[in-house]
Design a protein that fits this description.
Elements: H1 12-22, E1 29-34, H2 42-47, H3 50-57, E2 62-67, H4 76-82, E3 87-91, H5 114-119, H6 121-137, E4 139-146, E5 150-154, E6 168-170, H7 174-182, E7 186-187, H8 195-200, E8 206-210, H9 211-216, E9 225-228, E10 236-242, H10 243-247, H11 251-270, H12 272-285, E11 289-292, H13 295-301, H14 304-320, H15 325-338
Parallel strand pairs: 1-2, 1-3, 6-7, 6-8, 9-11
Antiparallel strand pairs: 3-10, 4-10, 5-8, 5-9
Helix pairs in contact: 3-11, 7-14
């Protein structure tokens, strides 16, 4: 990174290449789009090719310029709403306070399989997320995805539910925080870019993250244990674009871009399992011990008192934000039963 001294992130060079090509067409439009540099993740792997793909699909009439430093990640949805950014590859945990409704994927036991989640997008879930982006952030959702499998990084092994007690835990969503509190752990806020040194210095004992990010951030240098506890299985992200910026594009450009975004989305979901498996293998090859919680311990972790506390917390926050989380859960359960 030291050789890239501008304010643009690692993807900026590729994005600028697309802009340069598009500049030959007088009608080319640039969109400044934010992202978070989750190195090693399927999120970054999926968005990296998009500037070139969208330029090609639209005949270089639309150019995406990607930034990871103009606006901090959790502030990007508001920046898109206010027009300070044209778009953002927005990560759903950022909305835990303002719009908890969109974090239904973090609820324990509700959606535990990414393939199942993908199948439920168009009957239900895509529009439920799009409504939040449209109503609260004046944005159009043009693509969505999920992070790869989630894991827990720790310096000491976590083999039993009791091992969480007393630990300081960096979580990435409020629902996981509520679950950790039920187990006697202490959710501890740490900025995304500081999670490795925080673990190394003992500011936290446990870090929840995705398996790709764990490898990309070099956790093997400070910890040796990776455990899979199936907490917060679905961590969505969405490419959102300010409604005014999107509507200013010619209709044929919007149509071509949307088709290419959807194609890229389908490829992203198809690659989820292979990506996750490869990331886990890399963690093991780096010297980390990978351990998956057996069903007996998962049953204890997701015992009714623990799960009910998480749902109650989420329902209350949804109600305060003006949404009906309970009705959404019922619709998801009904759809699961019909599958």
């Amino acid at each position: 990174m030291s050789g890239f001294a501008t304010r643009r992130g690692v993807l900026g060079a590729a994005a600028m290449l697309t802009v340069s090509r598009g500049a030959t067409a007088q009608s080319a439009t640039k969109l400044n789009v934010g992202f978070v540099n989750a190195t090693g993740s399927s999120y970054v792997a999926s968005l990296r090719p998009l500037p070139e793909r969208i330029g090609r699909a639209t005949g270089n009439r639309l150019a995406l310029e990607l930034y990871d430093t103009l606006v901090s990640g959790d502030q990007q949805p508001a920046a898109v709403r206010d027009g300070r950014l044209d778009g953002s590859f927005a990560v759903s945990p950022w909305l835990s306070a303002e719009a908890p409704y969109i974090n239904f994927g973090h609820l324990p036991g509700l959606l535990t399989d990414v393939a199942q989640y993908h199948r439920m997008l168009d009957p239900l879930l895509r529009e439920e997320m799009a409504k939040v982006w449209r109503d609260r952030y004046r944005s159009v959702q043009v693509m969505t995805g999920v992070f790869e499998d989630q894991c827990i990084i720790s310096r000491d092994p976590l083999r039993k539910v009791e091992d969480f007690r007393g630990k300081k835990v960096r979580v990435h969503n409020t629902e996981a925080a509520a679950l950790m509190q039920r187990l006697g752990a202490a959710p501890t806020p740490v900025n995304f870019g500081e999670i490795v040194p925080a673990l190394q210095r003992g500011i936290v004992d446990i870090v929840m993250t995705s398996v790709g990010t764990a490898g990309g951030f070099g956790f093997h240098n400070v910890a040796k244990h990776v455990s899979i506890w199936r907490i917060g299985t679905i961590v969505p992200w969405s490419l959102i674009v300010n409604q005014n910026a999107w509507n200013r594009l010619p209709e044929d450009v919007r149509t071509a871009a949307q088709a290419e975004f959807r194609k890229a989305e389908d490829e992203h979901f198809a690659n989820h399992a292979p990506f996750s498996q490869a990331a886990i293998r890399r963690l093991a090859s780096s010297g980390m011990e990978v351990w998956e919680a057996p069903q007996a311990e998962l049953d204890r972790l997701f015992a009714a008192p623990n799960v009910e506390a998480v749902y109650a917390n989420w329902y209350e926050r949804c109600q305060r934000s003006g949404t009906d989380g309970r009705a959404l859960v019922q619709r998801i359960e009904a759809l699961k039963n019909r599958a």
